[in-house]
Specification:
alpha/beta, Rossmann fold, 10 helices, 18% strand, NAD-dependent epimerase/dehydratase family protein, Epimerase_deHydtase, Lipid_A_modif_metabolic_enz, NAD(P)-bd_dom_sf
Length: 324
């Protein structure tokens, strides 16, 4: 008697900051794993998965179709974030942030085999899709009113996914992640966010600047916990399909304290005094959301999946500074 074929999981964006950590976790499982990235992915050796590594430009329809051929589950981590603070979103941003998912859903609709279950698609969205937060603690029941181009694009893509799910094309799960930070132990890649930027300033002996008095709260999700949430979504896709879910630690960290911790950790490495953390006038492109406190209530996601964040913030910041 032959064993059933292992399920195929395709990770789109596998060479990225979060994608490489997701891919490393999935490599430990007895599955077929296809790691697809703009650049060649690095996957740790010795895992249980049968691994296929591909490079692809997923904005090219044929390359996207090949990337997901035969996949039972797809993790969509492809995003373009550059230029999102500008008054108008670039066509390139729209093409990547909305167009790739639209094409993916079209590919899956055309190949749909109604004799079996629809493929799972886990999509990485952002808690900022809500727009200006109506209150500090968000739980996913808020009305979405995104203000900046990037958030409007992410929301548009999410709505396409959920509509395809309602039509039976996919089992779609959207995870809205807060500020994810840290580095990939697989590739060494760092996040491109404010914490790494400020860590590099501190290591260079430059002051850390902030656009407020430091009391603004942020829910900061370490990359390891972000990746484990995505894997948990794959494991519980049927319980999650059809809506978006907020993922976060549930703890609001005052950014002034976070930046001072970064300054202290950088000073430990350089053997100098901590750089000052100072308030400055925000630039003209600042969004109101930058000045609002946000804490994520991920209770609904945790109840469905059993997922829990495990990273200690100070130790996660220490690792980030060390990698910067």
């Amino acid at each position: 008697m032959t064993e059933p074929e292992r399920p195929l999981v395709a990770v789109l964006g596998a060479s990225g900051f979060i994608g490489s950590v997701v891919t490393a976790a999935l490599a430990e499982r007895p599955i077929r794993l296809r790691a697809v990235g703009r650049t060649r992915s690095v996957v740790p050796a010795g895992g249980a998965a049968d691994i296929e590594i591909r490079t692809a430009d997923l904005t090219v329809r044929g390359e996207l179709e090949d990337a997901v051929a035969g996949a039972d589950a797809i993790v969509h981590l492809v995003a373009r974030t550059t230029g999102w603070r500008e008054p108008g979103a670039t066509a390139a941003g729209e093409r990547v942030n909305v167009g790739v998912l639209r094409d993916l859903l079209d590919v899956l609709a055309n190949r749909r085999d109604t004799s079996g279950p629809a493929p799972v698609v886990v999509y990485s969205g952002s808690t900022s899709q809500v727009g200006v937060p109506p209150r500090t603690r968000l739980d996913g029941t808020e009305a979405d009113r995104p203000e900046i181009p990037f958030d409007r694009q992410k929301l548009a893509a999410e709505r396409l996914l959920l509509a395809a799910g309602a039509a039976g094309v996919v089992r779609g799960v959207s995870l809205r992640l807060p500020t994810a930070f840290g580095h990939s132990p697989v590739t060494g890649a760092l996040d491109s966010g404010v914490l790494t930027f400020m860590a590099r300033r501190a290591l260079a002996g430059e002051p850390i600047t902030m656009w407020h008095d430091g009391t603004v709260l942020r829910d900061l999700l370490y990359v390891r916990d972000a990746a484990s949430a995505i894997v948990a979504a794959l494991d519980h896709a049927d319980a999650l399909a059809g809506r978006h879910w907020l993922v976060g630690t549930g703890v609001g960290a005052p950014l002034g304290d976070v930046f001072r911790t970064i300054a202290e950790l950088a000073a430990e490495r350089t053997g100098t005094e901590p750089v000052p953390v100072v308030s400055v006038e925000p630039p003209g492109v600042v969004s109101e959301t930058d000045l609002r406190s946000v804490v994520i209530d991920a209770g609904a996601f945790r109840a469905r999946t059993g997922w829990r964040p495990t990273a200690d913030l100070r130790e996660a910041l220490r690792a980030t500074v060390a990698a910067a």
